């Protein structure tokens, strides 16, 4: 109340009567899902131990409201209509000094008035605090409104809003937004967008001017648990946020806008745009390298520079630039064939965009040719007619010397005729150009091609090859100009891994005309030969007509005479072949599969997966195994996967119909529990078994499970360990079969089964099944899992039943001084008359029985449980309705888990009950640690301190139950404690070390000391210590810079003698450089009556002659400089800083001549941040120092406000 007194002195007023809801105990009751009440905080006060909402900004004029949530969901509380600058907080708890903060706000936010949103749980009571911030007045009339908040439509990842275009904006609101399980880090309230890039380039997505801490994260992936981070979410400081990244055309990106969970969220505008291309400006031109090539680019977002000429006389407006170097005199050709918009291209010499000399200009397809000089650079401009933009294809060739004359068959329209069943010609690509019909393929060719025209004299397999050519060729066969409706019949680059000539074979139709295009990687002469095999092609010539191989193992005879090679078909085993046939085989089970060929000719063999001949993934391939006419491959088969087997003739070899080749294969066996008699036994009251149904069958007399015929069933046998209920399901992410049948039976043989439960699809239509049924202890149940459509794959069968120890009479014994047990209380129940541990009524209690080996203190906890919100109770007694409570606790320890401890008597038996709060059930780990009257933790004594590893960020788990305090031992963090444990750390280098006790089950004290290698507990030098890491917490945190060859002693104790399980977390980080405002002379300038600044004291130092701020030696100070804009009171505070701060304000002109104006260590009881208030004089410069108590350091949050 000292602050309230200071305000009274500054501005005398007549005391007003306190409001009826001034005190926490007299909070005004609110009811219903929505409503509004009016009130006032004039005359209100602050109680001892009352929290200060809004990062410590409250002035202490608090009133209270109490609301019990009638339903679960997100709710909003706002102060719209309140006539002063108010702040508010929402808490849970039953006493004013032991509240847990849910959320709070300290400003008006995006709506112009304080507003909070939070997730409420039905039946939970929430305490609502309203205070004044103090400018211009901290009191007045209050209007408090509450209502449910629906989530935004794109709250969930699967409901992401689609965005389109290279630029745009959209509006939204994060009020009511939530965070899903498995979301990436970096926010608490999130909304999702989905955007697919049309063009490559650099993009920016941003929210500007938003008053919340927010982040923009960019990801690829189709589900939350399979996202790949493109731009990590980094939380901003409340001025908006953005994400910049390089997008690839065709890629779909998931964008998440998130704000802190503790902030209420609000409306926003989300904008995005594409940056101009990197080569938008003349001086940033991209280089075209080599004597020829093709570059794919786009001019979306490009501009036209001041002084830039009109290329080829076209004004354009979206130009990009390239440079090309000519080592010798010659000719350069550039065209844009393949671009998807109306383009122009021009060539220049010159050193600036406004002083260029034009050389050539032209349209996209024809392109330009221009002569070049020795060792000269040239600039190429590409633009869109009328400013058009889109995808670009830039093709270029450079030839030394004068350009050769064009071949007569350069253009498609002038194709040279060739004829007959066989023949050969020679030709050249020297001097050839790129025309409209020269559609360039992504094969490395230079695009200058020549054409031939051939009419098939009969149907058969036609082969064209360029063997003997002097250049690296590429062959294609078309039925028309590629830039008109046309079909590509065949394509080949190299016939083998060590050749550069080409060969194609395709199915020719008698009388049909085909156009043969010859491209190359350099200009020069070539040879072209052709032949026609009039034999009819095999039925399995094409990939789509593959011959099925149905059995697990077998052999077939086949021929490849007359077969062809399809467009896009790979070269099998590295050989171009030309006469391939195809087979399909679906693996019945997992294991090694082997395929082999035997023939009189040299064949090649390859195995693939994929859905089309042009998009296959090779699994295995072979060219010769034990001889040139035998091939063999082996691979690990996956059940249900279809493999495509190709057999081709090496170098175009053919196996005739009168002498076929043989293909043999062997696959894996069926599963062992295919038959009812071999059902796999499964046990316990819960578990999961994962098996494959590959190779599984349906037995004679087997029923149709869940009414479906199925055909690939697996059998399991389970005996119920206890009476109650059981659930079996295949609804698991590990199940690959997409539609299962599930049935449960009793009986002793396949022909005498009685169905107990069965399901095909779940009520929602989801095709993975589950059944729930009543069970009798000791009864054996037969479980069948089948595939509705005989799909092959992995099946995960999960079951859970009433726990064996669900009832008090079936308590499971546990023994020993220390131990743990893991299980689940799903499907559990609660008996009539059963106690409620921690006063919380659960619904699924399980029971254990433990007998104390000797007298002493024992601790039970669930801190290592994967699931949260357990409650624990220890009892004595022999019947569930007449138990005596020894100890119990709710989910208030080690991050929403439970912990109890009590003094046990030797030989006495205690019943331990475990349940869950809030109706939850799930897996748990119950651990116990026992301390008799003699033994204590191994690191109880200073001399037995546990060694920690330098540089290893980790968590050390321990316990302080049974620990003592030694003679001469200091009081850690200023509290007498009484049950300390010790750690020791030797460091080899300077690092930043952060220690904290998050996850511990009691109110901790943490202290770090220095001393020699051989030290005693009474000769230590304090370095840094902490009681509570932040207001409202009971765990501790310190951060300090370690020294090379340093020795540190770390003590953890319990405040006021508390004990429990301990988590000591260590985090090492590289030592950053000193902050820029480390020294007085470099103080950071701040201004205005109100404001905030963030920084750090990590690596900061203390200068010679620097005073001790707030009476403490500190050691890591930073400085700020503020000049008063007028006369009046001003407050500075460090609320929100991450360490125990010291705050001091000075006047003066130098470090050695400072006069203290105000100083503070802790702003109030239970806080570790600082606050000062003083009367400022207009024009006077004040120096503000922020240091760490006992050399603590960390993130600084400095705020100031008038009044």
Comma- or semicolon-separated keywords:
single chain; 2 helices; 5-stranded mixed sheet; globular; Jelly Rolls; 1203 residues; 9 domains; 43% strand; 81 strands; mainly beta
Characterise this structure.
This protein is 1% helix and 43% strand. Mean pLDDT is 86; it is low at 1-14. The strands form 18 sheets. The chain has a 5-stranded mixed β-sheet. It has 1203 residues and is an all-beta fold. A hairpin with a 7-residue loop joins strand 77 and strand 78. The protein has 9 domains: 2-148, Jelly Rolls; 157-274, Jelly Rolls; 282-400, Jelly Rolls (Sandwich), CATH 2.60.120.510; 412-533, Jelly Rolls; 543-666, Jelly Rolls (Sandwich); 676-801, Jelly Rolls, CATH 2.60.120; 808-932, Mitogen Ypm (Jelly Rolls), CATH 2.60.120; 955-1070, Jelly Rolls, CATH 2.60.120; and more.
Summarize the topology:
Elements: H1 2-10, E1 28-30, E2 35-40, H2 53-56, E3 63-68, E4 73-78, E5 86-92, E6 100-105, E7 115-120, E8 125-132, E9 141-148, E10 161-163, E11 168-173, E12 189-196, E13 201-208, E14 214-220, E15 228-231, E16 240-247, E17 252-259, E18 267-274, E19 286-288, E20 292-298, E21 320-326, E22 330-335, E23 343-349, E24 357-363, E25 368-372, E26 376-384, E27 391-400, E28 416-418, E29 422-428, E30 450-455, E31 460-465, E32 473-478, E33 488-492, E34 503-508, E35 513-520, E36 525-533, E37 547-549, E38 553-558, E39 581-586, E40 591-598, E41 603-609, E42 617-622, E43 630-637, E44 642-649, E45 661-666, E46 680-682, E47 686-692, E48 714-719, E49 724-729, E50 740-746, E51 754-759, E52 770-775, E53 780-787, E54 794-801, E55 812-814, E56 818-824, E57 846-851, E58 856-861, E59 870-876, E60 884-889, E61 899-904, E62 909-916, E63 923-932, E64 946-948, E65 954-959, E66 981-987, E67 991-996, E68 1004-1010, E69 1021-1026, E70 1037-1041, E71 1046-1054, E72 1061-1070, E73 1084-1086, E74 1091-1096, E75 1118-1123, E76 1128-1133, E77 1141-1147, E78 1155-1160, ...
Parallel strand pairs: 1-3, 10-12, 19-21, 28-30, 37-39, 46-48, 55-57, 64-66, 73-75
Antiparallel strand pairs: 2-9, 3-8, 4-7, 4-9, 5-6, 5-8, 11-18, 12-17, 13-16, 13-18, 14-15, 14-17, 20-27, 21-26, 22-25, 22-27, 23-24, 23-26, 29-36, 30-35, 31-34, 31-36, 32-33, 32-35, 38-45, 39-44, 40-43, 40-45, 41-42, 41-44, 47-54, 48-53, 49-52, 49-54, 50-51, 50-53, 56-63, 57-62, 58-61, 58-63, ...
């Amino acid at each position: 109340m000292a602050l309230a007194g200071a305000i009274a002195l500054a501005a005398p007023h007549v005391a007003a009567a306190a409001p009826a809801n001034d005190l926490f105990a007299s909070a005004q009751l609110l009811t219903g899902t929505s409503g509004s009440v009016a009130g006032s905080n004039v005359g209100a006060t602050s109680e001892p131990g009352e929290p200060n909402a809004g990062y410590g900004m409250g002035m202490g004029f608090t009133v209270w409201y109490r609301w019990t949530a009638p339903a679960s969901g997100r709710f909003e509380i706002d102060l719209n209509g309140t006539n002063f600058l108010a702040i508010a907080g929402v808490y849970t708890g039953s006493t004013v000094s032991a509240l847990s903060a849910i959320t709070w706000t300290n400003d008006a936010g995006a709506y112009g008035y304080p507003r909070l949103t939070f997730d409420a749980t039905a039946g939970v009571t929430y305490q609502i605090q309203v205070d004044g911030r103090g400018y211009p007045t901290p009191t007045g009339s209050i209007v408090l409104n509450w209502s449910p908040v629906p989530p935004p439509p794109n709250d969930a990842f699967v409901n992401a809003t689609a965005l389109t275009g290279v630029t745009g904006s959209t509006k939204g609101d994060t009020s009511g937004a939530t965070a899903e399980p498995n979301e990436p880090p970096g926010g608490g309230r999130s909304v999702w967008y989905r955007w697919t890039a049309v063009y490559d380039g650099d993009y920016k997505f941003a929210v500007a001017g938003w008053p919340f801490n927010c982040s923009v994260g960019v990801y690829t992936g189709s589900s939350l648990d399979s996202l790949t981070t493109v731009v990590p979410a980094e939380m901003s400081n409340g001025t908006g946020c953005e994400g910049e990244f390089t997008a690839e055309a065709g890629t779909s990106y998931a964008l998440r806008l998130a704000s802190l969970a503790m902030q209420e969220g609000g409306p926003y505008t989300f904008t995005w745009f594409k940056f101009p291309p990197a080569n938008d400006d003349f001086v940033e031109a991209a280089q075209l390298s080599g004597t020829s090539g093709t570059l794919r680019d786009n001019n979306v977002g490009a501009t036209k520079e001041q002084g830039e000429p009109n290329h080829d006389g076209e004004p354009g407006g979206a130009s990009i630039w390239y440079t090309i170097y000519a080592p010798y005199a010659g000719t350069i050709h550039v065209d844009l064939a393949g671009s998807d918009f109306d383009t122009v291209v021009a060539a220049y010499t010159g050193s600036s965009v406004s002083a260029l000399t034009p050389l050539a200009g032209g349209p996209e397809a024809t392109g330009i040719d221009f002569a070049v000089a020795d060792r000269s650079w040239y600039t190429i401009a590409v633009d869109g007619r009328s400013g058009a933009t889109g995808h670009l294809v830039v093709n270029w060739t450079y030839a030394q010397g004068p350009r050769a004359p064009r071949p007569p068959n350069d253009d498609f329209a002038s194709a040279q005729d060739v004829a007959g069943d066989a023949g050969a010609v020679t030709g050249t690509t020297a001097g050839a150009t790129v025309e409209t019909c020269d559609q360039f393929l992504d094969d490395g060719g230079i695009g200058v091609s020549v054409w031939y025209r051939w009419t098939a004299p009969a149907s058969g397999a036609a082969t064209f090859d360029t063997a003997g050519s002097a250049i690296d060729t590429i062959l294609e066969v078309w039925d028309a100009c590629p830039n008109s409706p046309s079909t590509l019949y065949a394509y080949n680059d190299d016939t083998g891994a060590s050749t550069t000539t080409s060969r194609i074979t395709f199915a020719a139709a008698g009388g049909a005309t085909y156009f043969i295009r010859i491209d190359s990687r350099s200009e020069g002469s070539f040879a072209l030969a052709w032949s026609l095999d009039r034999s009819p092609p095999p039925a399995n010539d094409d990939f789509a007509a593959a011959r099925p191989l149905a059995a697990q193992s077998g052999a077939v005879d086949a021929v490849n005479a007359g077969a062809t090679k399809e467009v896009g078909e790979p070269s099998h085993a590295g050989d171009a072949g030309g006469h391939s046939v195809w087979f399909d085989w679906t693996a019945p089970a997992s294991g090694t599969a082997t395929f082999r060929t035997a023939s009189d000719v040299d064949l090649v063999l390859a195995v693939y997966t994929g859905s089309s001949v042009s998009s296959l993934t090779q699994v295995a391939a072979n060219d010769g195994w034990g001889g040139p006419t035998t091939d063999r491959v082996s691979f690990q088969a996956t059940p249900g996967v279809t493999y495509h087997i190709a057999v081709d003739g090496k170098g175009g070899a053919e196996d005739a119909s009168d002498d076929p080749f043989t293909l043999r294969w062997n696959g894996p066996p069926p599963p062992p529990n295919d038959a009812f008699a071999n059902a796999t036994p499964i046990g316990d009251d819960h578990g999961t078994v994962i098996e494959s149904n590959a190779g599984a069958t349906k037995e004679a007399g087997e029923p149709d499970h869940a009414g479906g015929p199925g055909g690939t069933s697996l059998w399991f046998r389970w005996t119920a360990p206890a009476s109650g209920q059981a659930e079996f399901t295949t609804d698991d992410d590990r199940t690959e079969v997409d539609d299962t049948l599930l049935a449960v039976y009793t009986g002793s043989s396949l022909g005498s089964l009685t169905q107990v439960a069965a399901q095909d699809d779940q009520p929602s239509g989801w095709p993975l099944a589950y059944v729930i049924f009543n069970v009798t202890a000791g009864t054996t149940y037969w479980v069948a899992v089948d595939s509705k459509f005989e799909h092959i794959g992995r099946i995960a069968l999960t079951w859970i039943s009433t726990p064996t120890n669900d009832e008090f009479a079936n308590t499971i014994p546990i023994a020993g001084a220390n131990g743990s047990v893991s299980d689940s209380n799903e499907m559990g129940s609660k008996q009539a008359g059963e106690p409620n541990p921690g006063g919380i009524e659960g619904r699924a209690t399980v029971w254990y029985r433990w007998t104390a080996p000797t007298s002493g203190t024992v601790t039970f906890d669930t801190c290592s449980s994967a699931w949260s919100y357990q409650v624990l109770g220890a009892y004595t007694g022999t019947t569930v309705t007449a138990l005596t409570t020894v100890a119990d606790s709710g989910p208030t320890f080690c991050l929403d888990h439970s912990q109890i401890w009590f003094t046990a008597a030797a030989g006495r038996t205690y019943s331990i009950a475990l349940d869950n709060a809030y109706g939850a059930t799930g897996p748990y780990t119950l651990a116990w640690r026992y301390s008799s009257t003699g033994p204590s933790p191994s690191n109880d004594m200073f001399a037995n301190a546990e060694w920690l590893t330098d540089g290893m960020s980790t968590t050390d788990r321990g316990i302080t139950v049974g620990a003592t305090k030694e003679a001469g031992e200091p009081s850690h963090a200023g509290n007498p404690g009484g049950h300390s444990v010790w750690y020791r750390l030797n460091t080899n280098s300077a690092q930043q070390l952060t220690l904290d006790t998050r996850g511990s089950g009691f109110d901790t004290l943490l202290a770090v000391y220095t001393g020699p290698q051989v030290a005693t507990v009474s000769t230590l030098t304090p370095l840094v210590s902490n009681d509570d890491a932040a207001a409202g917490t009971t765990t501790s945190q310190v951060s300090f810079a370690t020294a090379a060859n340093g020795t540190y002693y770390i003590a953890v104790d319990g405040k006021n003698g508390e004990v429990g399980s301990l988590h000591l977390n260590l985090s090492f980080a590289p030592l950053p450089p000193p902050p820029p405002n480390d020294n007085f002379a470099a103080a950071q300038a701040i201004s205005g009556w109100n404001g905030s600044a963030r920084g750090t004291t990590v690596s900061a130092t203390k200068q010679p002659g620097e005073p001790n701020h707030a009476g403490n030696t500190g050691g890591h100070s930073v400085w700020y400089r503020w000049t008063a804009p007028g006369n009046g009171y001003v407050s500075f505070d460090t609320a929100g800083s991450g360490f125990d701060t010291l705050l001091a304000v000075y006047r003066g002109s130098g470090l050695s001549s400072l006069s203290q104006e105000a100083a503070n260590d802790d702003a109030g009881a239970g806080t570790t941040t600082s606050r000062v208030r003083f009367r400022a004089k207009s024009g006077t410069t004040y120096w503000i120092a922020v240091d760490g108590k006992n050399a603590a350091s960390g993130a600084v949050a400095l705020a100031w406000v008038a009044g």
